[in-house]
Amino acid sequence: MDATTVLAEVQGSIATVGYGLAAIGPAIGVGIVVGKTIEGVARQPELAGRLQVLMWIGIAFTEALAFIGIATAFIFGY
Q1: Judging by beta carbons within 10 Å of its beta carbon (0-12, 13-18, 19+), is residue 54 exposed, middle or buried?
Q2: Number of domains observed in the structure of the chain
Q3: How far apart are CA 71 and CA 57, in angstroms?
């Protein structure tokens, strides 16, 4: 087993771990967005429709981070 083989195996593992770490941020972000929307609806029930629309927009932007993470893993990891 030479140094090149070991380095190639480590790089493959790093790409997998990197995407796993990149997926944690959007998961936390979506949880915060949904939690704050529920809190807002509890405080102002008449704004539920408007807050729900803003929640979906926030989730879409937050999930874009996950797509960037998986694209980065494919670009740099494979």
Answers
A1: middle
A2: 1
A3: 21
pTM above 0.90, yes or no: no
Structure tokens at 71: 């694209």
Q: What is the largest CA-CA distance in the chain?
A: 67
- Nearest CA among 65, 75, 74, 60 for reference residue 22: 65
Task: Residue 31: give the domain boundaries.
Answer: 18-76
d(CA 34, CA 29): 9
As averages over each run of 10 residues, the pLDDT of the chain (78 residues) reads 58 68 85 95 95 94 84 72
Q: What is the CATH number of the domain that holds 53?
A: 1.20.20.10
Q: What confidence score (pLDDT) does residue 65 get?
A: 81
